[in-house]
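ugh ok so i messed up the first submission bc i forgot one of the chains. this is the corrected input, ALL of the components this time, i swear. 862 residues overall. if the numbers dont match what u have on ur side tell me asap before i send this to the collaborators (the ones from the other lab, u know who)
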Amino acid sequence: MHPAELIEQKRNGGEHDPGELEALILGYARDEVPDYQMAAWCMAVYFNGLTSAETDALTDAMIRSGATLDLRAALGRKVVDKHSTGGVGDKTSLAVGPIVAACGVPLGKMSGRGLGHTGGTLDKLESIPGFRVELSTEELVAQLRDVGVAIVGQTADLVPADKKLYALRDVTATVDIVPLIASSIMSKKLAAGAEAIVLDVKVGDGAFMKTLDDARVLATQMHQIGTWAGREVTCLLTDMDQPLGRAVGNALEVEEARDTVRGDGPADLTELVLEACARLLAYSDLGIDAAEGRRRAEAAVADGSALETYERWIRAQGGDPDPAALERAPVQRPVPAPRDGVVTRVGALDVGLAALALGAGRRRKDDPIDHAVGVLCFAKRGDTVLAGDDLAEVHARDDAAAERGAAAVLAAYELGDEAPPERGILLDVVD
Amino acid sequence: MHPAELIEQKRNGGEHDPGELEALILGYARDEVPDYQMAAWCMAVYFNGLTSAETDALTDAMIRSGATLDLRAALGRKVVDKHSTGGVGDKTSLAVGPIVAACGVPLGKMSGRGLGHTGGTLDKLESIPGFRVELSTEELVAQLRDVGVAIVGQTADLVPADKKLYALRDVTATVDIVPLIASSIMSKKLAAGAEAIVLDVKVGDGAFMKTLDDARVLATQMHQIGTWAGREVTCLLTDMDQPLGRAVGNALEVEEARDTVRGDGPADLTELVLEACARLLAYSDLGIDAAEGRRRAEAAVADGSALETYERWIRAQGGDPDPAALERAPVQRPVPAPRDGVVTRVGALDVGLAALALGAGRRRKDDPIDHAVGVLCFAKRGDTVLAGDDLAEVHARDDAAAERGAAAVLAAYELGDEAPPERGILLDVVD
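and heres the new structure output, hopefully the right one now
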């Protein structure tokens, strides 16, 4: 295998066979194929794409670049997993995990850190004092057995080729390539041993996929890879034109996730969490359908068992589940409505960038994160407000940052005289 | 300047401003922009191209990555230069240099080594025992003053960004990108101080540009860069569907170049050499037109002054100009015509690959070259032959190589019953 010939083949619109892709990816993981050849290949893929067969083979090669986990063997149970393509205010996994576990189904999830508006799931969890994200495989298995839920950092030996390739794509303008995204996500899910996966594909202004059509393409590719690998996959296509829930910012989102687990979350987040739980429970070894899954998830929230599981989970990983333990930003500044009207838009990207500017996210991968800061969007699309009502509240490190943040958040809001068309959180399902 | 943003800009079909290109190229030359970002950028350029303004700015940045020569200041004369995009059997410069010099016009040329079928001009010259291609700038200037012709290796301090970028493109399937080729060639010519340049753009099977249309695009871009830089440029678009002249192989080509200088060269090579000389003399400070240039070039060949200049030049660079001093391959094997007929095709690429297999060229940049081996194509397109006539002769290191070479050369020939349409060596001119 000469990498330059594979690059040329892809550049010219040709198709690689599985052996060629395996040689390329494993060679790259072993540092035999240099970064510059991989970067040129990724850019050729940007323009000429990958076929389904190539995407499957690429995913397979990625998985084979490292170790794999077999949670079924370790637990003697079918394990389900949930993943989101990422959006503004997305704390879904933090609520889904303990609810599903409270229903008796183990959910073990490997997660990442965020690069962008706000932190990733790990960053959010680390805003809880004492929380440990680095568990050994033995600790992970024991916690799944004892508590039923664990969210941990991805171990370095799982899919090392993806880690290396993602870092390269990040600095060579080759991130937004659908088959590479699909393969990156699915290789990690498959290597981590999930037998059934619910994927939350975000759609809109604050998501990677801006349109429902684009999201369907990504969802279909991920579903296809899962099917090829013999796993069950459902993709929920969900709205990311406005932030999910109210809270955007790490500690603020943890608190909102806890509220949702105890039945006091915002409507859109609650709906998405329950829908994801329903699908996961239907995939589990409980032998129930999604409707029954939804009933059990609602019951676990209502009877307090989900909250109890949440608290046991946080404690199991060393954290303090009391929301009072979360750090609170020193400055809270309201963002009043400038007029009477109906909220017609809360730009997710704008709110995300405002949170990033406050310090809630990372511009570069080594940037520190300020867990306390962020934004609470009280008014959402379709809400009626009066002049002076609090549209939102900015949580900042100091007054100057609060002032800038409030201006940025205000600019994210559009007020009109007529209510916009109603749109639920769940836009489509690919399964 | 963030390289990743420039890559994305080009990937999305945007246009860089000159400052951005300068930062990219100078950053790359200083090892501040890594190979992987440059490779991704090159691949984006493959798909989205460069505008004229971008190509000019790129060329300018390439030149500014290193030192430049000012031969006019050093010599007090206008200096002309000649360059070929490369083909099979292309020894034109070896004959043009001494003829132009014999007419009183200095021709100082920096040349390269070959990667491909046969060696580059430097490799051909090094088949002359004792010939030195590494001259200091002082030696170059002195030789141009004393002899009027010098062909030397490019010094490392001229256009270092091009050298680095070319090596990267070679291993990332980004060689065949017209604006990058145009910029690479022109940056070297401009940095070496030529005020007027005759470019021989080869067209056909054995050339980089396969069609006249493609060659016109490259020629037009190089002409445009030259004009932007205030230089005079003429592009001769010449036939490379069959090898140029008869000889393909380093020492064999040197001998044929010498034959041409003394008026005994093959018709196509002689015509191209005289046409190039005519254009160069018309660009010189002699104040004559191309027709008068052609007459003077023919006279220098006829009266022996061109051959005398050739011998003085080779001696000045330490070589022995006697053709008997050239190494001769131990095995010569004829390639007889299998039938009566007219030669309808002598595939330039096939002959080139046969010569490469004999050892006349390089597959990798560190491969050694066998100066003695090669092919003599006695019969050219349109020639009538009888069964058993020698179409060609293979010069090889041993019998086995000669046998394989003869079979490969025979396969390059097509014989028919009707003469193909006549076609001169000069297909078009862009000036």
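quick check: Residues 138 and 317 of chain A are 13 Å apart (CA to CA). that seems consistent at least. The first helix of chain A runs from residue 3 to 11.
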